[in-house]
Amino acid sequence: MKAIMLAAGEGTRCRPFTYLSPKIAQQVCGLPLLEYMLSWFEGTPEIDRLYIAVRNESIVKALRDYLEKRSSYLPQIRGLFHRLGFAVEHANRRLELEVIQARGWGTGGDLRLTINQLSNNELEEDFLVCNADYVIVRRLPSGNLSPQLDLSDIIRYHAESKKALNTVMTVALVSVKREEATRFGVARLEQVGKFSLVRGFVEKPKPDDVPQKPWINAGVYVINGSFLLPHLDDFLPEQPRTNLEKTLLERLASEKQSRLAAYLLNLAAWFDVGTLEQLVGANIYIASLKGDE
To answer: How much is the mean pLDDT over the chain?
Structure first.
């Protein structure tokens, strides 16, 4: 399976730090945000290639240079994660990484530009897409903490939902505090057997309209390529400010029979590192973990 990481945003809400380096290079407890994201894929054997879409040629060059030199430092990177109190598994030894230039056209526009640069047979089956600005903490059955999202289980859930309900896309959702949910689009869910379907999103709801356990988009998707590729112009127009959530997710959810499945994440912590405040918050939380053990 192929995966695409969308990292072409300007990072305006993390300025002035992003004047120095792109958001994926911002550090959380000494490790670049990129390393937290890469750890997800290096723990997912189902994914054999990850495409990282960035904004401009200078970032493409710098990131390619970093990835080329990085492999010999993996033991040290794992060691740094362990010092933070994390168990990290690099089970996917065959993962290939490739950097692609996009244009900062929004999540939908950059996904379309990335798809345009790949051959159709690479994405003709299911493929995974994620945004690039998350830090998560997951508690393993052993009790240890991990920064790695269980992408394998999301992929399995998508395949089962597609077979049972004819869904064509799965979105990972995370539960947040009610007061935080007013900043996001809150999903309306319908339970069908053992699966959850998204029936729509309530954008930035008023506090009184937020459910007791609000579920929001966690920015991770599995998409059926055989469905999407023939309809790219319809769902992902090649133009600036194209929003993946608006052009694809909301349309699939609003159909008479929703074709958008929801995978409900069970995490100890989830940070959308989109602002300086959230970046600092992630640093404070991760730094506190080792002391709590």
So the answer is: 91
